Structure formats: C-alpha cells, structure tokens
Amino acid sequence: MKKEYVCIVCPSSCRLSVEEADGDILVTGNDCKRGYYHGIKEYTAPVRMLTTTIAIENADFPRLPVIGNHEVPKEKLRECLDILYETIVSAPVKCGDIIINNICNTGVDICASRSISIKGE
Fold it and tell me: Which residues in the chain belong to E strands, given as ranges?
C-alpha cells in the first residue's frame, strides 16, 4: 500500500511516497538520506513527541506544561492524552519533575517543563 508523507526533518518539506514491494520499503521524493530514513520510520513505526498541559492546583496558573522525555508510538497518543487530561497535580512543581512514569507502558516519562510555585509565593 502506497502512503504519502511530508518530510519534517529539514526545511525542504519533501513530499515522500512510501510503499512496500517484495518485502522492501521503497521511498521516493526525498532530497536527502534523512528524508529516506524518515519515510521508512513513518511507514513502519511512526512516533510523536507528546507535549500538552495538565491541571495544577494551589498555583497562580491553572495549567502545567508537560512533555515526554522520548517520542511516543503514534498509536498510543490518544491513550496517553486521555490519562493526562484526567491528571491533576498540586504545586509546587519543579521543571523536570516526573509527573507520570512510563505512561501507558511506552517507556516514556512525562515531565514538568516549567517550575510552578505555590499560589502567592
């Protein structure tokens, strides 16, 4: 089955066509090797960085920005987001604190990407 992607590795934004033929993965449209490898990765095991915000109590701000320490398999994104949207933490939180360890058994830790102190401090 042929799939089309826009490469995001460099500013060229090449339009990639990726298909499997006789057990080999064929990538066309790439201007560089990085695009070739990106096409293969998108076709075989797509991943995404997970960044969002979660609720925080007892703070001057209502939301805490968080990020995964590695990429999450694309098919697990919705499951991970559902858990994060239900998560509430309490201030204080330091940048880098692990909020959720090994979210959805992906091996990815969700970390605070900002320090937030207790309300009024």
Answer: 3-6, 15-21, 24-28, 47-48, 51-57, 63-68, 72-73, 88-90, 98-100, 110-112
